[in-house]
Amino acid sequence: MGMDQEKVFLADTADYEKDTVFNSVKYLFDSLGGAESIVGRNKNVFLKVNLVREMTPDKCGTTHPSVVEAIAKILINETGAKVRVGDSSGSAYNAPVMNSTFRTCGMAEACAASGAVLIDDFGSTTKKIDGKVVRYLDIIDEFNNADVVINVGKLKTHSFTGYTGAVKNLYGLIPGLVKAQTHSLYPTLSVFCDCLIDIERFASQKIVLHFIDAVIGMEGDGPTNGTPKFIGKIIASKNPYYADVAGVSLFADPTQMPLIKKAQERGLLPDDLTETGIDFAALNKDYVSDFKTVTVVDSDFTKKGFLRRFLRKNWVTRRPVINTKKCKGCGRCYAHCPQKAIDMVGKTTPKKAKIRKNECIRCACCQELCPHNAVKLKKPILYRVICALNYNGKKRSKRNGKEQKND
Is the pLDDT of residue 115 over 90? Predict the structure, then answer.
């Protein structure tokens, strides 16, 4: 069942039925030496899940509750752990917002069925990160107060970073609205990937295991407005970069993902990914060849001056555009824009969102958090040309020996 490797394990999982998922999660724990060997006895364990915003489980944009329930049951029954479940979504980090999110995403039900409890401390503390680009950052106290942490991500496309899995999920350790501020401090793709790695390096002191829910992922306009896509796996590893490489290899070439390339640059992954010991030949057998990916163009190709600013903003990155017919005037994009580049305009009530394109940093937070799917990403002409030249209409993974349609 799945693929045995020294550092990463995958379990074939046909659906989200509770017994099916439990058996997969049990297999993964046992493959890694058992739950007690990973977390110890009677620990306070925080399950950091992916709850990017209020979404029902069938949308497949958040960690599925059956995965959370299975992990919590095993920890409680086999280690005597006290398990707390939660996340900081992209909205305000407080009890009314998060409790509503927990209910909608199925976390309340998962906790009730497993014996875990939902987090109820919505405080945060400024911590010294001492990373490459991040020095200090607010981190949620549920992480700070836990004995050990298990990261439970969701495999999806992401309009800014290309994908989200294990490492990207740790951006949720930043409380609610502070995420927008952090985006504004690290606006380019390259420096934002450094920020993500700095957070992971800080968090690694407590995180003992990473799961990725890849039973049904999300393709297209992820991480919230894409389409559910069956992948059929749950992934587990003590190394989040290995987990991400294995996950991405199921639908794309991991060497083309900026976050993975940045990890290689910083020595967290080898330049030759075959040195990880991951069995790519086995992954090829389950490769989802028709998966609709996000083509990421890293436009940070000059260090300063007009060329970099002009190309990044106007030519080679996808620009968010508001569909006024779908916009309900809820103001969520307005409240969470890192650059405050969105206005609520119009003579009618409610007013509609409008993006000041010259101030937009293309982080796609508005698209990610819009509950009405009213934000689309417009592809500039040069973006299309670059994609055509690079991929000739299709994205080819030389290592995988597969062809995959471009988005």
Answer: yes
